[in-house]
Specification:
Length: about 190
């Protein structure tokens, strides 16, 4: 059970309604709405990462899932399994990213760039600052704006996980996967 009551989105100011328009009624939005103006910034940054980043969606979702696994956030991992599948992340990669939150992700199902990004994600989550050689190796593979997007994605989803875990945000009722990996109607189109 959530630690504080969920915000009644019918009471949200117009600016927040505009940011939530077209989104499914997820509990994270109902919790974050307590943040007023900070909720608007939170939603805006999340939207930018998910909809306007130049980082390939598959790479972005691997980062998000890894952050969720490292932070122990069931809600985040559950929601982004679906998003990762829609972005074309193979199930073997999803399981490898989630399988070893205490150690590095398995190298086997990942290409060189994916593996470097995952190792970088581990370092940033665990140590804040990646070692110079790790940073330099990734910087040699990604343009500066994508390197920044990787760091922003890691940081944002660390925040998401901290909100979810500290407020004990619950998965939505009926939010289950069917045998084909499709979500129930609350999340919209399968």
């Amino acid at each position: 059970m959530a630690r504080i009551p969920y915000f009644d989105l019918a009471e949200a100011p117009p600016e927040l309604h505009a940011l939530l328009d077209g989104r499914p009624p997820l509990n994270i939005y109902r919790m974050v709405a307590h943040g007023g103006a900070t909720a608007q910034g939170f939603l805006g940054l999340g939207s930018s990462i998910l909809r306007h980043s130049s980082l390939p969606a598959r790479l972005r979702e691997l980062v998000i899932l890894r952050v969720g696994a490292l932070c122990g956030s069931t809600y985040e991992v559950t929601q982004h399994r679906r998003v990762a599948a829609q972005a074309g992340v193979p199930a073997a990669q999803v399981e490898a990213v989630l399988g070893h939150p205490q150690g590095s992700a398995d190298k086997e199902p990942f290409d060189s760039l994916e593996h470097r990004v995952l190792d970088f994600t581990d370092a940033v989550v665990r140590q804040v600052k990646a070692p110079p050689e790790m940073f330099d190796a990734l910087a040699a593979l990604l343009p500066p704006h994508q390197l920044m997007e990787v760091v922003m994605t890691i940081g944002y989803y660390m925040l998401v996980c901290r909100v979810l875990e500290n407020f004990e945000v619950e998965l939505e009722d009926g939010n289950v996967l069917d045998s084909h990996g499709r979500w129930s109607e609350i999340l919209g189109k399968n």
